[in-house]
Amino acid sequence: MGSKQIVCIVCPVGCTLKIAKELNEYSVNGNKCAKGKLYAIEEETRPTRIVTSTVKIANGHLNRLPVKTSSPIPKKLVFKCMEEIKRIEVEAPIRVGEVLVNNVLGSDVNIIASRSMYKE
Amino acid sequence: MMQYDIVVVGGGPAGLAAAIKAKKEGIDKVLIIERDKELGGILQQCIHNGFGLHIFQEELTGPEYAERFIKEVEKLEIEYKLDTMVIDLSPKKVITAINSVEGVISIQAKAVILAMGCRERTRGAISVPGTRPAGVLTAGMAQRSINIEGYMVGKKAVILGSGDIGLIMARRLTLEGAQVEAVLELMPYSGGLTRNIVQCLDDYHIPLLLNHTIIEIKGKERVEGVIVAKVDENKNLIIGSERYIECDTLLLSVGLIPENELSRKAGVEIDNVTGGPIVNESMETNISGIFACGNVVHVHDLVDWVTKESMRAGKSASKFAKQLLNNQDSININVGCGIRYVVPHKISLSEKKETIELYMRTDNVYCNADIVIQVNGETVKKLKKPRLNPGEMQSIKLQLKQIQLEKNPIITVCVDKGRAENGI
Amino acid sequence: MYDITIIGGGIIGTSVARELSKYKLNVALIEEENDIANGTTKANSAIVHAGYDPNSETLKAKLNVRGNKLFYKICNELDVPFKRIGSLVLAFNQEEMVKINKLYNKGLINGVPNVEIVNRKRLIELEPNVSSNALGGLYAPTTGIVSPWELAIALSENAVENGTQLFLDTEVIDIKKEESNYRVITKYKQFKTKYIINCAGLHADEINNMVNSDSLKIQPNRGQYFLFDKGIENMVNTVVFQCPSEKGKGVVVLPTIHGNLLLGPTSEKAYDKESFRTTVEGLDVLKKEGARVIANLPFDKLITSFSGLRAKSYTGDFIIEESRESNGFINVAGIDSPGLSAAPAIAEHVVEILHKIHEGLEKKEDFNPLRKKEMRFMELSYDEKNEIINNNPQYGRVICRCENITEGEIVDAIHRKVGARTVDGVKKRVRCGMGRCQGGFCGHKVMEIIARELKVDITEVEKDKKGSYILTSSKDANEMYNKINEVVVLMVKSQGENVG
Hints:
The complex is a heterotrimer.
Chain A: E1 4-7, E2 16-22, E3 25-29, H1 34-45, E4 48-49, E5 52-58, E6 64-69, E7 73-74, H2 78-87, E8 89-91, E9 99-101, E10 111-113
Parallel strand pairs in A: 5-8
Antiparallel strand pairs in A: 1-2, 2-3, 4-7, 5-6, 6-10, 9-10
Chain B: E1 2-9, H1 13-24, E2 30-33, E3 49-51, E4 60-61, H2 62-75, E5 79-81, E6 85-89, E7 94-99, E8 103-114, E9 118-120, H3 123-126, E10 136-138, H4 139-149, E11 156-160, H5 164-175, E12 179-185, H6 194-201, E13 208-210, E14 212-218, E15 225-230, E16 243-246, E17 249-252, E18 256-258, H7 261-265, E19 290-292, H8 303-321, E20 330-335, E21 339-343, E22 346-348, E23 355-362, E24 366-375, E25 378-388, E26 394-399, E27 411-416, E28 419-420
Parallel strand pairs in B: 1-2, 1-8, 2-5, 8-19, 10-17, 11-12, 11-17, 12-13, 20-27
Antiparallel strand pairs in B: 3-4, 6-7, 7-8, 9-18, 14-15, 15-16, 20-22, 21-23, 23-26, 24-25, 24-27, 24-28
Helix pairs in contact in B: 1-2, 1-8, 4-5, 5-6
Chain C: E1 2-7, H1 11-20, E2 27-30, E3 47-48, H2 59-78, E4 82-84, E5 87-91, H3 94-110, E6 116-119, H4 120-126, E7 136-140, E8 144-146, H5 148-161, E9 165-167, E10 172-177, E11 182-186, E12 190-198, H6 204-211, E13 218-228, E14 239-242, E15 252-255, E16 261-264, E17 268-269, H7 280-293, E18 302-313, E19 319-322, E20 329-333, H8 339-357, H9 382-391, E21 398-400, E22 405-406, H10 407-415, H11 423-430, H12 443-454, H13 477-495
Parallel strand pairs in C: 1-2, 1-12, 2-9, 5-14, 12-20
Antiparallel strand pairs in C: 3-8, 4-8, 5-7, 6-7, 10-11, 11-12, 13-16, 13-17, 13-18, 15-16, 19-20, 21-22
Helix pairs in contact in C: 1-5, 1-8, 2-8, 10-11, 10-12
């Protein structure tokens, strides 16, 4: 492959990184710290993101319960993950961190509540 | 009249942290007054992650971050009133509030901490021309509608302003199935964090159009589209660059304004640049015993910094309530070239602190520049920065030991040797 | 059959309706929009002019001066805030001082009380912040300020309380002349009526031309405005005009009745009657013209800009007369400035015309001139507030934090005789969303309250006009639109018996 440019999102500096693959090794340029290199390689090989959204909740003091993936999931699964989240309906009470869906899309990642909600 | 040692106005991140700190400093009667139906403030609608890296060394969502503080408030048995609106505050620290259960409440406080946060700048404030159909709303309003109430606000959106809320909402709308046509930014740089541009726009191929604005909103009942145009370096429209973008929704993320109507009632002096109270390093305003912290003082990018600042306010207010704070004389911190504002605005002479932290924003993008603190024209501190961006708040520690405050030195913060990326 | 059908629910239609509700008549007031005061009445300068500006011998002059006199009593009866704050017309050079002299003389002829030519010294006493270039001007102490839409709503409420039947969402499609009456055809309902009073504002020509061949022509003239936040209204104490020109009275700076500062209007020919928009050029004109009057207007304190269309007639004067072709068809058309000021007198004038064509016009003995008072909660004392919250906890819940409006006041605005049904309807009545946050904080809460009180789904709550939906949810917009129309039909049906 040729070289590719990405903007590092690890810290607010926002370095422009150049990443290239030679044989089986990645070379990263433009990073001002070691974290940048790791980020570039991960973003190139297996980009992941945390997904956050809300689900329907009954008997809570609000209509929606915020949720998130327990860890980052592959970027390509983000929209599929949203589809899964849209199907979830829960009932109060819920505690923060409670697992709502196990192993979503076989990714080893759970969908968890990102706040507690008491029963109204 | 009710009596409290410290009354905190606002139960968002600033108010929660201030109240917790005050209680932990040994103040018994602390009261938080919150106008919404729960504590947590705007964090409750900020369901995305990225909060707490500095305070908790982990990435939390807004509600998670809020919950940690709310639990602490409960654990410390700090009193709070919800659905309660403060309608008046006197310089003598008498608070008048109102709610459905108690009616009109009068409270005498020894110290007051203002933590009312900020509001969003509206279409009207920036005078976007055109018709006035439904479908024009602030990004925060849309965020509340989608994340708290559970209603979508449109199907095809354009976002004006690239502040963080605008960027976050571009992603949120996209994930919820709406089409975001573009994010427009009048300035040559984004007002949001770079990571948000990557995660919220680039990930979803949403174009960020810098040096662009909206010159007309079209639509009779509901938004039908907007005419956008490019501007030159002086923000003048470039004739011929106009184009029409069809959409049913226009979100605005064009800045936040500290909400200080209540502060003004108490005679609190306001800085025209920040829109918030003028404070010293104790976060005390010009009115003795009235403190302020968080976005009511100046708009922060990171809630972690709000928390830190508010803990300082909580600590100072508790000292005040114990009659241990003496802030009578102070010297100003001057805003030098390249800097828009510095908070705190003043350093008190009688409170002997070793170091204080100064927070500031620059007036432009600078590359490879230094933030410099000068005392009587001599540099006492220099902080090298590869990149300074008005959208990203800077902080710098000042060792007070080096400065003979009693001699009334002139302290100035400025940007040095930088290369402005645009303008200037 | 109705004796009279009034077409148009703006300040003119409602003034006429309220005046006619004093008489033993069966009156229908019909309005195409879903609320009173949704056209010219909701976007104008909100000034009750003294009356020195219109040329003597015109209807404008006569009705303006008379209307101004009637304002205090009407606003008092209807519990609508009104203040006589006086006005100044500034002169920036000797040429303009000559114009000021002419205005002064017109004022005398028109019978405007206490007009006065002022020099620079007196000018500064009256307006300390006025531009240093102003030499002097004309002072007219009787000029007043009012909220035109609140007045129109109050007039309609009082009319309805006195027996007028109000029909909203009732657009006139056609009018048929029958043997001894007219038939007004609308989408859902027909009105058989002896007389028609055409108060249709911008659309008065279209209504007229449904019946008459003489082609009345209304030219819409656009005016753009800036509204500033509260806290700076003391920049001016009076309504400050510049010297009038052939284009009109020029850009004015004035405090509003609710304590904001208003700057406007521009004067531009609008190409159609739906052209309610502000423009880059128009807003620039305002900034320049505003700076002539007050050097340092704080444009960082703007809270909104808006535009209104004025219905100009080609004669330059109001057209208030029975049609020469159609007996019993009374036009009240071409009511541009000073239409608001003249409105109470226009209503009297219409009754005079009716007296001539309808025998035995008889006053009701039981006419009640007073409207149920509005509770302005924040103006009450602590004890009064406590007592009210005790009786109704909704008054303890502040919804709009900019204007400090409680849930109780919003609920009352929805359930009054001519109640609010939309977000802007609430805004017009109790000012939620009119403040500096422009509804950013209270918008959703207001929608929830409307949905709850009117027993509709929140996605059906609209901003103002039909089709101005706010939330889309998962619902399709078209689907929603149809649903709203059904609701409207139900409402209209429940409002009065079907004639025709």
